[in-house]
Automatic annotation (TrEMBL):
Keyword Iron-sulfur appears in the UniProt entry: no
Official protein name in the record: Lantibiotic protection ABC transporter ATP-binding protein
Organism: Eisenbergiella porci
A Pfam family assignment: ABC_tran
GO molecular function: ATP binding; ATP hydrolysis activity
InterPro entries (UniProt xref): AAA+_ATPase, ABC_Gallidermin_ATP-bd, ABC_transporter-like_ATP-bd, ABC_transporter-like_CS, P-loop_NTPase
Family recorded in the similarity comment: Belongs to the ABC transporter superfamily.
Keyword list, A-Z: ATP-binding, Nucleotide-binding, Transport
PROSITE patterns: ABC_TRANSPORTER_1, ABC_TRANSPORTER_2
Domain of life: Bacteria
Positions of the ABC transporter domain: 6-229
Length: 233
């Protein structure tokens, strides 16, 4: 058995004449947090959308648990990419119940994730009345409903206050310790440095660097050196 939950091999994706992802190969270890770093527009969201099945690669291969990715694998993948997919006129619990029903997941899972995301008191509150941070937490709760093997989070700290960010860090480490793998994208290097086991640096659609985090290394300097070198080239 491979030590990796996910691999992409030479993946390409274009939109009209724009090449969003170029020949990208990455490897995500089981039971780890993988930090995907890159400036806005680097290709992070496009890559994560392919992993989450929202869009399909033009070419290349995605492997999940040692086999070619299929839509059945979405039962084992949870994702929050860009804005949380909420029904504003429904309560927090109703949003979760709709997703659970569509996926054939026990409704009991709804209360479990509400508690995990500290949203139990807002269970019967409409999503339209939520703050941006609460909507983000509800989006993460939706991604956790199926108890995924792989959790994909795109800029998950958006809208969270400092306490929410600290709590998210703790949860990400707990997820990895419990056997879940997490891919978290961000352009905030300091956030990723505090939670990730491995990092990948993406710029202009290409993965320029991938390795385990060295605790003694200056991640900001590493990032700037790698991106600057690519820009100069």
């Amino acid at each position: 058995m491979s030590e990796y939950i996910l691999k992409t091999n030479h993946v390409f994706k274009s939109f009209k004449k724009t090449r969003a992802v170029k020949d990208l190969s990455m490897s995500v270890r089981k039971n780890s947090v993988y930090g995907l770093l890159g400036p806005n527009g680097a290709g992070k969201s496009t890559l994560l959308k392919m992993i989450a099945g929202i869009i399909t690669p033009d070419s290349g291969e995605i492997l999940f648990s040692d086999h070619p990715w299929t839509r059945k694998d979405l039962l084992n993948i949870g994702s929050l990419i860009e804005s949380p997919p909420l029904y504003e006129n429904l309560t927090a619990f109703e949003n979760l119940k709709v997703r659970a029903t569509l996926m054939g997941i026990p409704v009991n899972n709804c209360d479990d994730v509400l508690q995990k995301l500290d949203l139990t008191d807002a269970k019967n509150k409409k999503a339209s009345d939520f703050s941006l941070g609460m909507k983000q937490r509800l989006g993460i709760a939706l991604a956790l409903l199926n108890h995924p093997k792989l959790l994909v989070l795109d800029e998950p700290t958006n809208g969270l206050d400092p306490f929410g960010i600290e709590e998210l860090r703790r949860m990400l480490r707990e997820f990895a310790a419990s056997g879940m793998s997490v891919i978290v994208s961000s352009h905030i290097l300091s956030e990723v440095a505090q939670v990730a086991d491995d990092i990948g640096i993406i710029y202009n659609g290409s993965l320029l660097y991938q390795d385990a985090i060295d605790t003694g290394e200056n991640l900001e300097q590493l990032f700037m050196d790698i991106v600057r070198k690519e820009r100069e080239a």
